[in-house]
């Protein structure tokens, strides 16, 4: 028999706020050490009260707008109770009764066309802490840095029919959320619960469902789905086991899923409205403000850059990272030419980062600094090679370009007599190359030119140097 | 409320009662069940829930980071800690 | 009997109960499970008192998480009156003149009962006027810090200091400051006496109400008996919420992060179970069990959700009453004194007393105990309560 796979996803995404959702501690990505970003509330001490981070709500609404959701004008925070050492208060604040967004969709490109995946709801909640298990000392260390970091949980409808659609959805989601400034989606900051069942093709009833908890790597998700589908088909066709609705976890080493122990899954979470948190009402005025402040989408940026005349490849590279777009936009706004600016970012900056084993996404340069360097080159105050050298120092050493140029005297006007002296010296010291050139080997000129540049340490206008070099060497004929 | 249900509630809430306490607790549950049953005679149709007795909406703080406490202070009263983390018996074996 | 679980400064004139945090001063809320917990910050109310020049005398004993009649379930020592009957340590400290004022958290009426039992005043202000930042939480939706003192003027003195907006409490109302007065004219006031509550109290209490009523009438007020038919259902609703919220709030005490940890355990489950079994008394556990049950999937709608709807009915009922009356007069409790009893009975006995004290916790209106009786007013009607109390206090019995 042929089976249809039915998958639904619950995706948890950390929001890019400066502080946690209900207290003023920084997010865990700021932390160097365990428990660096904690306060009495994060470690469950009584007395502090939760107060909602306005920006976290705005980012959740922004996500809802991007995922074509209805933004609810009445949302509440509710408490969910269970015991686990990573949950310091033994309850998690979430949105159970009235989530902030409902009923949306995402269009996911696949090999067979576009699949529209329905979004049931997006709700806000706080993250739990982190546990580090130490086999040697036989203990578990509890770290509350991540406790109360704001999350949105994006709950899809059971609309996926293949692992390919799941991966396509997650990649699209990640790109949208990163580009929209909603989440950095760093390693581990996007986690999924995957609900899987199978049914005979053509059937409309749902089969027995298993939920694989807390998956963060795309490859693991793909493997887990394949494993579960095979397990379900075996159970149905060959009676290898009786399927029950249960929660399972993926073991990446053993390459299979395991049922989680009953106590972890049978809990009654005893949800109730949090009396300490007032309802959130996103009225039309606030919604408009959030819409007006939304960054352009990938599609909008692509169109904008195309109208500036950038190449398709440059556009694709820029829109792969929101911060590249932000940098590009700021530099262009300061008066630099778009195509030129794109080249500086995507060729020169990328090259310098690659030299240090980094990728373009890690680029960290102030737009003013890049604009200054491009301007110096455009105005002929330094040549492009020197510009690249300055750029390298700015990116790698974090120096200020103005100061670097001044210190290294890179913009000093080189007078013609110095160039002439240099050329003469080089010609005297490289008799072999000179005779090669005069004997017809044009290439020898390049090595002589290189030597001049080296002596001049990049100073001087290369065209002028070449002109003098050619003039002087021709005199020797 | 049965003894089995009561024991499940104890387990859910991570404590145990003695047998004598369980007997007493069952009596309290019987008493409260009567009280709760009497609630149903009050008509609440058309009445919305009221979570907050002095209702407001949109109470927020701005997204500003502040670190007012140190890890050492927070760990000071911990029953067991490693200098940077709380310690519990190993969870995954 | 010592009133204080922790002494701070013998020269101090104001006490706070042990569910109100004072930075650096161990806070146990009457429970073994908080042993050794030293808060890193003070409650907003304490900050305001200190800033206004008050000196803290110490922290008074409180029943475990404030869930009893009048402090009898404290793990660290129970305050009794000279005759061996019960009252709260805070009210006794005020009655004995050990302090001028005592702040107490009122979540189930215990501080009001204490004031009635010890013959002093206690005012629970309107919900949201005093910040709850820095109090050990039990039922957040109805608990409020109030002031115990020997007379209305002394209550007003401390209350005007501690009330006002606090951004660290998301339920704190916006007014920066509240102006209270104890000198409003009682003549012409209309007072409602709740029939069901009057009938439910014993003879001694009814005599006290009658005497107070006579004073009010002598001062020129009119008193009218009115029915509040669903008062019993409101009390049950508040018991449901109180236990549910308490269950949730005190589940954080687990032996992991601070406070008491059982000496013997072999894994995390035993660490939790042993710490909580040894660390909490029966009444706290009983509230957890009952509260957990009313929040369970099967019972949520018939118990918790129903209670939230009853809160609205109660709130509307109060609006209706205060549209026609300045204040409500009723007993603070069923009897004038509480002899010591078997503490296995605390949950039910306290639940019965909630009949008299619930509505102000459930609906947020202010309540005051004075002269052994209780008065309620509409939200922000503290001055009415203080003025009635002050007037009665000036009149000879």
Map the helices and strands.
The complex is a heterotrimer of chains A (477), B (93) and C (397).
Chain A (H helix, E strand, L loop, with lengths): L2 E12 L37 E2 H13 L3 E2 L6 E4 L9 E4 L6 E10 L2 E14 L3 E5 L4 E5 L6 E7 L6 H17 L10 E11 L9 E6 L2 H21 L7 E6 L4 E4 L2 H4 L6 E2 L10 H9 L5 H10 L4 H8 L2 H12 L4 H18 L11 H12 L5 H14 L3 H7 L8 H14 L1 H8 L5 H13 L5 H14 L2
Parallel strand pairs in A: 12-13
Antiparallel strand pairs in A: 1-10, 1-11, 3-6, 4-5, 4-15, 6-7, 7-10, 8-9, 11-12, 13-14
Helix pairs in contact in A: 2-3, 6-7, 8-9, 8-10, 9-11, 10-11, 13-15, 13-16, 14-15, 15-16
Chain B lengths: L2 H10 L6 H21 L20 E2 L9 H6 L9 E4 L4
Chain C lengths: L3 E4 L6 E4 L26 H8 L4 E5 L28 H7 L5 E6 L3 H9 L2 E4 L19 E6 L2 H11 L27 E5 H6 L2 H16 L3 E5 L4 H19 L18 H12 L2 H13 L5 H25 L2 E5 L14 H18 L3 E4 L2 E4 L5 H13 L3
Parallel strand pairs in C: 2-3, 2-4, 7-8, 7-9
Antiparallel strand pairs in C: 1-3, 4-6, 5-6, 5-10, 9-11, 10-11
Helix pairs in contact in C: 2-3, 4-12, 7-9, 7-10, 7-11
Can you describe this structure?
The complex is a heterotrimer of chains A (477), B (93) and C (397). The mean pLDDT of chain A is 89. Chain A is of the alpha+beta class. The longest helix of chain A has 21 residues. Chain A starts with a strand and ends with a helix. By secondary structure, chain B is mainly α. Chain B has a domain of 57 residues. Chain B is flat, with a radius of gyration of 23 Å. Chain C is α/β, with parallel strands linked by helices and 397 residues long. Chain C has a single domain, classed as Amidase signature (AS) domain (Amidase signature (AS) enzymes, Alpha-Beta Complex), CATH 3.90.1300. In chain C, strands 1-3-2-4-6-5-10-11-9-7-8 form an eleven-stranded mixed β-sheet, with helices on both faces. In chain C, strand 2, helix 1 and strand 3 form a beta-alpha-beta unit. The radius of gyration of chain C is 20 Å and the shape is globular. The relative contact order of chain C is 0.16.
């Amino acid at each position: 028999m042929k089976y249809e796979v039915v998958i639904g996803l619950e995706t948890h995404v950390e929001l890019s706020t400066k502080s946690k959702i209900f207290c003023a501690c920084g997010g865990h990505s700021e932390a160097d050490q365990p428990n660096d970003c904690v306060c009495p509330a994060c470690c469950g001490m009584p007395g502090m009260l939760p107060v909602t981070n306005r920006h976290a709500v705005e980012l959740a609404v922004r996500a809802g707008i991007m995922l074509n959701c209805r933004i609810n004008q009445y949302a509440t925070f509710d408490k969910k109770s269970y015991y686990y050492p990573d949950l310091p208060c033994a309850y998690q604040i979430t949105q159970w009764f009235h989530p902030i967004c409902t009923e949306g969709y995402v269009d996911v490109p696949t090999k067979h066309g576009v699949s529209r995946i329905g979004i049931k709801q997006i709700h806000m909640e706080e993250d739990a802490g982190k546990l580090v298990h130490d086999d040697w000392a036989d203990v578990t260390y509890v770290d509350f840095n991540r406790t109360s970091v704001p999350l949105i949980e994006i709950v899809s409808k059971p609309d996926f029919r293949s692992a390919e659609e799941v991966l396509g959805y997650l990649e699209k989601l990640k790109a949208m959320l990163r580009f929209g400034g909603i989440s950095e989606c760093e390693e581990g900051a996007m986690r999924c619960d995957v609900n899987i069942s199978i049914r005979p093709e053509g059937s409309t009833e749902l089969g027995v469902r298993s939920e694989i908890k807390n998956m963060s790597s795309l490859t693991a998700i793909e493997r887990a789905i394949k494993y579960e589908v095979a397990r379900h088909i075996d159970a149905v066709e060959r009676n290898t086991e009786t399927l029950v609705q249960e929660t399972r976890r993926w073991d990446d080493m053993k390459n299979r899923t395991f049922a989680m122990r009953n106590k972890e899954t049978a809990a009654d979470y005893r949800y109730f409205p949090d009396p300490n948190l007032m309802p959130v009402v996103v009225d039309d005025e606030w919604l408009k403000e959030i819409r007006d402040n939304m960054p352009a989408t990938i599609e909008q940026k692509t169109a904008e850059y195309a109208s500036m005349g950038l190449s398709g490849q440059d556009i694709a590279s820029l829109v792969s990272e929101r911060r590249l777009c932000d940098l590009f936009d700021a530099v262009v706004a300061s008066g630099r030419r778009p195509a030129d600016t794109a080249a500086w970012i995507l060729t020169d900056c990328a090259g310098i980062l690659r030299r240090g084993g980094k990728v373009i996404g890690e680029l960290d340069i102030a737009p003013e600094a890049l604009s200054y360097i491009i301007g110096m080159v455009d105005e002929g105050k330094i040549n492009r090679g020197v510009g690249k050298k300055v750029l390298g120092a700015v990116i790698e050493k974090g120096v200020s370009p103005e100061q670097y140029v001044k210190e290294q005297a890179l913009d000093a006007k080189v007078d013609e007599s110095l160039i002439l002296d240099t050329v003469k010296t080089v010609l005297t010291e490289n008799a072999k190359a000179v005779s090669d050139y005069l004997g017809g080997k044009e290439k020898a000129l390049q090595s002589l030119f290189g030597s001049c540049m080296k002596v001049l340490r990049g100073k001087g206008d290369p065209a002028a140097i070449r002109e003098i070099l050619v003039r002087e060497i021709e005199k020797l004929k | 409320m049965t003894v089995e249900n009561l024991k499940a509630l104890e387990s859910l809430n991570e404590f145990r009662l003695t047998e004598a306490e369980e007997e007493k607790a069952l009596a309290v549950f019987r008493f409260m069940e009567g009280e709760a049953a009497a609630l149903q005679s009050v008509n609440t149709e058309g009445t919305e829930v009221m979570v907050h007795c002095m209702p407001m909406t949109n109470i927020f703080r701005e997204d500003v980071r502040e670190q007012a406490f140190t890890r050492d202070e927070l760990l000071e009263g911990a029953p067991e800690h490693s200098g940077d983390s709380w310690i519990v018996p190993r969870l995954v074996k | 009997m010592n009133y204080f679980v922790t002494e701070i400064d013998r020269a101090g004139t104001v006490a706070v109960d042990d569910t109100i945090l004072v930075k650096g001063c161990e806070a146990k809320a009457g429970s073994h499970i908080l042993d050794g917990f030293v808060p890193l910050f003070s409650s907003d109310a304490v900050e305001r008192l200190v800033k206004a020049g008050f000196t803290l005398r110490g922290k008074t004993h409180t029943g475990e998480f404030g869930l009893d009649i009048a402090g009898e379930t404290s793990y660290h020592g129970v305050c009794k009156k000279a005759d061996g009957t019960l009252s709260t340590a805070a009210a006794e400290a005020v009655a004995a003149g050990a302090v001028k004022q005592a702040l107490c958290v009122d979540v189930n009426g215990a501080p009001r009962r204490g004031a009635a039992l010890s013959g002093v005043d206690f005012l629970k202000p309107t919900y949201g006027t005093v910040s709850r930042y820095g109090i050990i939480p039990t039922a957040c939706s109805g608990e409020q810090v109030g002031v115990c003192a020997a007379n209305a003027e002394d209550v007003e003195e401390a209350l005007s200091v501690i009330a006002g907006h606090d951004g660290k409490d998301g339920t704190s109302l916006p007014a920066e400051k509240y102006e209270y007065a104890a000198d409003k004219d009682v003549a012409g006031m209309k007072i409602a006496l709740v029939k069901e509550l009057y009938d439910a109290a014993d003879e001694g209490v009814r005599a006290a109400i009658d005497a107070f009523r006579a004073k009010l009438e002598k001062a020129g007020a009119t008193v009218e008996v009115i029915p509040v038919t669903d008062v019993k259902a409101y009390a049950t609703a508040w018991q449901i919420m109180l236990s549910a919220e308490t269950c949730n709030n005190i589940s954080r005490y687990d032996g992991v992060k601070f406070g008491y940890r059982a000496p013997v355990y072999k894994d995390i489950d035993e660490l939790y179970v042993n710490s909580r079994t040894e660390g909490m008394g029966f009444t706290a556990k009983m509230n957890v069990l009952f509260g957990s049950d009313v929040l369970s999937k099967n019972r949520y709608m018939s118990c918790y959700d129903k209670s939230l709807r009853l809160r609205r009915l109660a709130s509307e009922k109060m609006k209706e009453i205060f549209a026609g009356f300045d204040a409500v007069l009723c007993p603070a409790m069923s009897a004038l004194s509480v002899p010591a009893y078997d503490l296995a009975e605390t949950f039910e006995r306290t639940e019965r007393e909630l009949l008299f004290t619930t509505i102000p916790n459930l609906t947020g209106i202010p309540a005051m105990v004075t002269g052994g009786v209780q008065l309620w007013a509409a939200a922000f009607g503290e001055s009415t309560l203080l003025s009635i109390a002050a007037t009665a206090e000036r009149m000879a019995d």
